Amino acid sequence: MPSKKCGEDKLDDEGPVIVRYIKDSILDAEEYRYMEFKEVKGDHSIRSILSVVDQYVVAYLNERKKQFPGTIIWGITDKERKVVGTKLIHKERDELRRSIVERLDQIQPPIPPSSYKIDIKEVYDSSLKHIEDTYIVEVIVDTVTGNDLFATAKNEVYIKTDGGKKKLNHIQIQQEILLRNQHKRFNLK
């Protein structure tokens, strides 16, 4: 995912790859249907993330192709793919985790907490020293089976597009349900 500038390290041939986010480095990965970069602007990191996290999770849950898990990464610029991080002290990191779980618990129909993962990863300077209170926030949404159409606590339905997410109006929701039922019938035969 990240470029060599981001300091990929491998623990061993069988073990997991450790990704280090290096401030101001550029990721090789680009945004596409299953990966979304978000830059947190302003002093209210938690509020900024919470304002859209459920919308993106719902959009990924509503993805019909369900080929890959969806990932939203806060602390990466959208256009340049530059690692900037977001400021979060210890108390805020804990609050952010709890608040994301509370927000995602309100999705309808309900989803199990095992269907997503929240990772808060350190950001390093070019000499690989952790930059105090600077982090990348990743929310990874697993693929789900079935034809359910998910909604936020505000009863808003989103779908993932190649350019972001789209909020559906009532006619589009009806069309999406019909399309899902059509696919369901074809898959049963």
3D structure, described in words:
It comes from Bacillus anthracis. This is Schlafen AlbA-2 domain-containing protein. Residues 31-169 form the Schlafen AlbA-2 domain. InterPro entries: Schlafen, Schlafen_AlbA_2_dom, Schlafen_AlbA_2_dom_sf. There is one protein chain. This protein is an alpha+beta fold and 189 residues long. It has a single domain, classed as Methyltransferase, Cobalt-precorrin-4 Transmethylase, Domain 2 (2-Layer Sandwich). Helix content is 26%, strand content 24%. The chain has four helices and ten strands; from the N terminus they run E-E-E-E-H-H-E-E-H-E-E-E-E-H. It has helices at 45-50, 53-61, 90-104, 170-188; strands spanning 9-10, 17-18, 21-22, 35-38, 70-74, 86-87, 116-124, 130-141, 158-161, 164-167. The strands form three sheets. Strands 3, 4, 5, 6, 7 and 8 form a six-stranded mixed sheet that branches. The longest helix has 19 residues, at 170-188. The protein is elongated, with a radius of gyration of 18 Å. It starts with 8 loop residues before the first strand and ends with a helix. Mean pLDDT is 87; it is low at 1-13.
